[in-house]
Design a protein that fits this description.
single chain; seven-stranded mixed sheet; four-stranded antiparallel sheet
């Protein structure tokens, strides 16, 4: 497992942007696919985006496709979520998670991976 710490959340107006970061400890970061999840009050946790160990393949939920971009820097043990054109419905606690998977990410795999390391979450609030 890896230890994960998110940062970058905050309050932003609709249409604005935020970049979330997730710093991982350990020397095996590049062995993990990384995902961003979110959970709004009263709603189930939702998978937002996933990136493969190399950054070569990604998955996005339909609700964020075209607005959010996931990326990673294996030299810095960090994964990012660039969020543009934010909407009030994007308001949630955002979590990063790691799954030991060293292959391509497809839509089916992204949902079914065993995410066994989680960060503490960072709050994103989008005002209308």
């Amino acid at each position: 497992q890896v230890q994960l710490v998110e940062s970058g959340g905050g309050l932003v107006q609709a249409g604005g942007s935020l970049r979330l970061s997730c710093a991982a400890s350990g020397r095996t970061f590049s062995s993990y696919a990384m995902g961003w999840f979110r959970q709004a009050p009263g709603k189930e946790r939702e998978l937002v985006a996933v990136i493969s160990w190399s950054g070569g393949s990604t998955y996005y939920a339909d609700s964020v496709k075209g607005r959010f971009t996931i990326s990673r820097d294996n030299a810095k043990n960090t994964v990012y979520l660039q969020m543009n054109s934010l909407k009030p419905e994007d308001t949630a606690v955002y979590y990063c998670a790691a799954a030991r998977w060293k292959s391509t990410i497809t839509a089916g795999l992204a949902v079914g991976l065993n995410y066994d390391s989680w960060g503490q979450g960072t709050q994103v609030t989008v005002s209308s």
